[in-house]
Specification:
This protein is 32% helix and 25% strand. The protein is an alpha/beta fold. It folds into two domains: 170 residues, Thiolase/Chalcone synthase (Peroxisomal Thiolase, Chain A, domain 1, 3-Layer(aba) Sandwich), CATH 3.40.47; 146 residues, Peroxisomal Thiolase, Chain A, domain 1 (3-Layer(aba) Sandwich). The longest helix is centred in the last third of the chain and has 22 residues. Bound molecules: coenzyme A. Its EC number is 2.3.1.180.
Length: 325
């Protein structure tokens, strides 16, 4: 008789850069206000990486904490996946840079670019490696310095994002941990959310080239709400679960109104929803692991709780993970 293998989250960690940028400070740079930003997004402040501090630096801090919390030595890692849209350099991947700094040399290491869904994608891939027997101990990281590619004169985008990193250590176990992951993408609407700078098709004549997130916020908002509703339903159906079974919703932290809409769909009171967007802003691929680690460290999420993680981002990409913590 064959025994099923699952991946379990055995430790989490996160890191936020020291510098905090408040809405009031932003209002000195662009025509906006604390009231507008709070009303429309729920964001009160965001952390911004120091000059010279890279995505890899943030990832290293978060990963070190996750490994310590999991009581795992870096040499035990046999798979390292890092979700990011803001890699340190084009190559080597930030995962390879992190692998070397951690001393986890030899294992497979690669980045996943799925924008704000990066951590959910990385988790989904790591889960498949572990379930197939190809890996036993995986380090999954979401890390970003999104503020590095913002146009600080564009009030429609610069108020939304922040920097940070979160990480989780997964280990093969006979007990169910990650129950299912659901990953999706639709490249049809790339003009609604993108950064045109690149290598092969980069817009070199673009006036702000190098530092520009382009977004049709209102359109993205509508698609995000609809898409997240669908993936939440898909996750419940795949596990034959009623929405009442979920203990905690740990959503991507882009906008409190998007988060509230998903919570409403699940008939979950906001007390069962992990919210960090007020303090972190949208940290893209780092947002879900940051929220997860904050929920764990604060004692809200306990062993045995059923967690629904979800994210939506540029691509469009979206996904979810149902996790018995
Ligand atoms: N401060 C003050 N006013 C602002 C502003 C700011 N920072 N940004 C935009 N505005 C103005 C707009 O210019 C517009 O003015 P107008 O009516 O005179 O044209 C007005 O506010 C309303 O803009 P709109 O874009 O319709 O607002 P909104 O309610 O959709 O909120 C977002 C804007 C960006 C907060 C919201 O659409 C959003 O969060 N979208 C999703 C973005 C997202 O999550 N992206 C990442 C996905 S991972």
């Amino acid at each position: 008789m064959s025994t099923s293998v699952y991946s379990r989250i055995i430790g989490t960690g996160s890191y936020l850069p020291e510098f905090v940028l408040t809405n009031d400070e932003l209002a000195k740079r662009v025509e906006t206000s604390d009231e507008w930003i709070r009303d429309r997004t729920g964001i009160r402040q965001r952390h911004v990486a120091a000059e010279g501090q890279t995505t890899g630096d943030l990832a290293f801090e978060a990963a070190t904490r996750a490994l310590a919390n999991a009581d795992v030595d870096a040499r035990e890692i046999d798979l390292l996946i890092l979700g990011t849209t803001t890699p340190d350099i084009i190559f080597p991947s930030t995962a390879c840079l992190l692998q070397h700094r951690l001393g986890a040399n030899g294992c497979a290491a690669f980045d996943v670019n799925a924008a704000c869904s990066g951590f959910i994608y990385a988790l989904g891939v790591a889960d498949k490696f572990i379930r197939s027997g190809a890996a036993r101990t995986a380090l999954v990281v979401g890390a970003e310095t999104l503020t590095r590619m913002l146009d600080w004169n564009d009030r429609t985008t610069c108020v939304l994002f922040g920097d940070g990193a979160g990480a989780a250590v997964l280990r093969a176990d006979s007990q169910a941990g990650v129950l299912s992951t659901h990953l999706h993408a639709d490249g049809a609407h790339k003009e609604l959310l993108y950064n045109p700078v690149g290598v092969s098709a980069g817009f070199k004549d673009e006036p702000n080239h190098g530092v520009r997130v382009m977004m049709a916020g209102n359109e993205v908002f509508k698609v995000a709400v609809k898409t997240l509703d669908a993936v939440v339903e898909e996750t419940l159906a795949a596990n034959q679960l009623d929405k009442s079974a979920i203990d905690w919703l740990i959503p991507h932290q882009a906008n409190l109104r998007i988060i509230s809409a998903t919570a409403k769909r699940l008939a979950m009171p906001m007390e069962r929803v992990i919210v960090t967007v007020d303090k972190h802003g949208n940290t893209s691929a780092a947002s879900v692991p940051l929220a997860l680690d904050h929920a764990v460290q604060s004692g809200k999420v306990k062993r045995g709780d059923l967690l629904l993680l979800e994210a939506f981002g540029g691509g469009f990409t979206w996904g979810s993970a149902l996790v018995r913590y």
